[in-house]
Amino acid sequence: MQEQVTKTAEKLVQRASAAPDGRRLMVGITGRPGGGKTTFCTALLSEMNQRIPGQVAFVPMDGFHFTRAQLDTFPDPEDAHYRRGAVDTFDAEAWFQLVRRLGAMKNDETIEVPGFDHAVKDPEEGKIRIKGDSKIILLEGNYLLASRSLSMLFSLAKRLGFF
């Protein structure tokens, strides 16, 4: 895996360096549950931070699980808790809004993002802080693109120069 991490880091740092001032590169890492996304992103983050210290951020989608209290309001709460982790047990709209905010974030701005607290078994608001001067933002999760706003996300990404 290290060879792939090194190659990916080289390409991403090179691409971010070529971006116009004030633009950041947002990179989505997605795949099946247990497929190694977080492991890969953690290694990639470490590798890139050696090359461009403090300019890379990591946002896992886990913080966008609906809380257990929210799952209690589903039509079939028992089923919702059982299926927690399925696409409809994530707040896809909040994820979309976050990606949108990250794309428009100013260099002197900081955005707080929910993380997932495994001890509490729920998301925790403000657990992750993303600095506006981040050149690269890694977005990781099973359902990065699962949103009714998907076409808008692609349109936004293209307009902001992420492709």
Can you describe what's shown?
The chain is α/β, with parallel strands linked by helices. The chain has a single domain (2-160), classed as Rossmann fold (3-Layer(aba) Sandwich). Helix content is 40%, strand content 20%. It is built from six helices and five strands; from the N terminus they run H-E-H-E-H-H-H-E-E-E-H. The chain has helices at residues 2-18, 37-51, 68-71, 77-82, 92-104, 150-160, and strands at 25-29, 56-60, 110-117, 122-131, 136-140. The strands form two sheets. The chain has a three-stranded parallel sheet, covered by helices on one side. Helix 5 (92-104) runs parallel beside helix 6 (150-160). The chain is globular. The two termini are 25 Å apart. The model has no long low-confidence stretch (mean pLDDT 87).
